[in-house]
Write a structure and sequence with these properties.
With 99 residues, this protein is α+β, with helices and mostly antiparallel strands. It is 38% helix and 19% strand. It contains four helices and four strands, in the order E-H-E-E-H-E-H-H. It is globular and about 30 Å long. The two termini are 18 Å apart.
């Protein structure tokens, strides 16, 4: 279950993804399969080669990309989520979602 984002944030993320840009969308999230995880960042890009390079550049396995069209994305959770958001200068996500 996703919550904590505004419709305009989701719309902007979808537009960036569709343009082939790397786009970040963080939201609160609860899933019993991942105890202790309270948020996820969806890193999306319609250009799958670019998204695969992004994964490789960050030491992540591109096999875990959700290749759902029209919004392919990689789910960042846990310590890697905070680490990568910080590296990418997205400290507002880190603060807002208590990472």
């Amino acid at each position: 279950m996703a919550f904590g984002i505004k419709r305009q944030e989701l719309t902007a993320w979808k537009e960036q993804v569709a343009r082939g840009e790397i786009a970040y969308l963080t939201h609160f999230w609860i899933d019993n399969r991942f105890p202790g995880i309270t948020s996820v960042t969806k890193v999306g890009c319609a250009d799958l080669e670019r998204l695969e390079r992004w994964c490789n550049d960050h030491g992540l396995d591109p096999r875990y990309i959700h290749r759902r069209q029209p919004f392919p994305h990689f789910d960042l959770m846990g310590s890697k989520q905070k680490e990568i958001l910080t590296q990418e200068g997205m400290t507002d996500h880190v603060v807002r979602f208590h990472l």
